Fold this protein.
Amino acid sequence: MPGVLQRLLTRSGILPVLRARWREDLAAASSKLEKRIDKSFDALARDIERLRSELAQRPSSNGAAAPADVAERISRLDRDIRMLRDTMALDIEDRRRDTDRAALFQLSTVADHVQRAIAGAPIETDPSVHIVIDDLLPAGLTFVSASTGQGAWFW
């Protein structure tokens, strides 16, 4: 069937016009894309050169990092250690409870609980239409947020 349509469009003179327009559109889009890439590349090259000159101007201190960098790294490490410690404590507490995990993850039980939680959530209109779902998951399913270390996800 494509051959019939192609012959019909060629005989009517439409196909060469469509091809020419398509090539023009493709060339214009390619030109715009090349210009954007060139601008981005130029900006990156300027940034790299600026960073290179800044590094060259820094006084050498036997490879030691700047105090602000060290403080930031220590702060991040401290936060990560606190999060790991809290996660381990929650894990130990959970293991001591000796909870039946298979029962907690029963699809029908979880689905029923989630449906009831959603159905019971009131529709709020301020500042826009939304719902707040309390206790979305069954009580035995607790997740810890990796970013805050708190014992719940906020969706």
About this structure: Confidence is low (pLDDT under 50) at residues 144-149. The chain has five helices and two strands. The helical segments are 2-12, 14-57, 67-97, 101-104, 107-119. The CA atoms of residues 28 and 108 lie 56 Å apart.
